[in-house]
């Protein structure tokens, strides 16, 4: 059997996530650098819009979105697993994935574009046109950078929130470093979906970009060591304990991240549901459908309220988590809800999203 083909670049957050998951599963794959020619000849014809990463299976099926990729490789190659066996720990895994994929974007994008701009421009230019002269690469890199830099304000990353985003990232990094002093991976002895989702921003942006990497190396050497282990396919991993007991130090991390994420998501889902109700014929959904004010750094000296876009994709990620919650056996549910409540995450289990969304042909649509 020929292996998988991954279209990605080293600087990409999500390519890092799926690359590490493929390595953990010991799946042979070839990574092809997503240059301008690859976008034109492979990605656009296969997906219909320019995005990374894209996975092509040995049977030439195209998979876009790392969550779908993870589901596919888990279904086809169950060992070693990406998800824990315990149903409630799976819900936690989807929450960690959601936080890694969507909430760690704030520090990842902030540090990249506000501290590593020149590095990122050179990198994007070289990736896009590897055979061009450096000046031309920098010109193209700056053009691509303008687009990504424009994504900071919709996330709520604005000059008035920069200090708060940094404060919260550094607090998170410290908690993660503390966790790795006791456990090699998030759930214990083996990496799971949450590790790969955290690895995306922590490796591709916050370690690999030089100014951010200096911060991480100085403050969180155990996070650096975890990155090295995941890049090597987690050779030290042992099967997760059964029954699985979730480390207290992981709950502390979840609590820190959920403090602002959960209230943001509650407001966001209300807005997305309103949009879906008001646009019954909108089939393909826009990336954002309005804005809301969100609080960052809640209850700290740097608490700030900023506008943030309502991201429709977040509903898809929430549905994934809630579907996993629906599979938790009733007799476990009560105890597990209490644990989620203790870290400020219980509201996620209850947010009502009766108007559902789904991904079809690589696009986010109203559910049929
Ligand atoms: N949720 C997607 C996100 C993919 C994504 O945002 N990729 C970035 C690069 S790392 C991109 O190409 N974005 C272009 C776009 O969204 O228009 C995943 O998990 O794969």
Helix-strand pattern: EHEHEEHHHHHHHHHHHEEHHHEE
Overall geometric form: globular
- Give the biggest sheet: 4 strands, mixed
Judged by helices, strands and strand pairing, the structural class is alpha+beta
Total of DSSP H or I helical runs spanning 4+ residues? 16
Query: Low-confidence runs (pLDDT<50, min 5 residues)?
Result: none
Q: Give the mean pLDDT.
A: 96
| Order of neighbouring strands in the sheet with most strands | 2-1-3-4
Classify the helix fraction into a percent range: 55-70%
Number of strands: 8
Q: What is the distance, rounded to the nearest whole angstrom, between the alpha carbons of the first and last residues?
A: 36 Å
Rg result: 20 Å
The distinct ligands, each listed once, are: glutathione
Kindly estimate the percentage of residues that lie in beta strands according to DSSP.
5-15%
Oligomer: single chain
């Amino acid at each position: 059997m020929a292996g998988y083909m991954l279209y990605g670049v080293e600087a990409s957050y999500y390519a890092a996530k799926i690359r590490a998951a493929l390595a953990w599963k010991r799946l042979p794959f070839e990574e092809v650098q997503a240059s301008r020619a690859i976008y034109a000849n492979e990605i656009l014809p296969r997906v219909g819009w320019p995005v990374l990463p894209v996975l092509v299976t040995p049977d030439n099926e195209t998979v876009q979105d790392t969550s779908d990729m993870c589901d596919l490789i888990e279904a086809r190659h169950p060992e070693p697993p990406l998800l824990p066996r315990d149903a409630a720990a799976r819900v936690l895994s989807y929450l960690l994935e959601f936080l890694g994929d969507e909430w760690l974007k704030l520090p990842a994008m902030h540090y990249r574009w506000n501290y590593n701009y020149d590095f990122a421009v050179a990198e994007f230019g070289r990736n896009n046109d590897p055979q061009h002269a450096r000046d031309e690469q920098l010109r193209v890199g700056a053009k691509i950078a303008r687009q990504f830099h424009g994504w900071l304000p919709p996330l709520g990353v604005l000059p008035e929130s920069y200090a708060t985003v940094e404060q919260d990232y550094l607090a998170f990094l410290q908690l993660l470093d503390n966790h790795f002093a006791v456990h090699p991976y998030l759930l214990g002895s083996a990496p799971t979906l949450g590790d790969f989702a955290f690895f995306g921003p922590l490796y591709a942006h916050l370690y690999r970009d030089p100014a951010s990497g200096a911060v991480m190396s100085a403050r969180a050497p155990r996070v650096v060591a975890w990155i090295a282990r995941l890049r090597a396919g987690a050779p030290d991993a042992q099967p997760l304990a059964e029954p699985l007991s979730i480390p207290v130090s992981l709950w502390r991390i979840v609590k820190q991240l959920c403090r602002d994420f959960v209230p943001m998501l509650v407001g966001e889902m209300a807005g997305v549901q309103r949009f879906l109700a008001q646009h019954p014929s909108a089939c393909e959904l826009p990336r954002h459908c309005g804005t809301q004010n969100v609080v960052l750094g809640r209850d700290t000296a740097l608490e700030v309220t900023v506008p943030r876009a309502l991201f429709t994709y977040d509903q898809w990620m929430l549905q994934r988590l809630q579907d996993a919650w629906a599979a938790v056996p009733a007799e476990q549910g009560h105890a597990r809800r209490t644990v989620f409540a203790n870290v400020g995450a219980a509201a996620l289990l209850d947010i009502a999203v009766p108007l559902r969304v789904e991904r079809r042909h690589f696009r986010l649509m109203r559910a049929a």
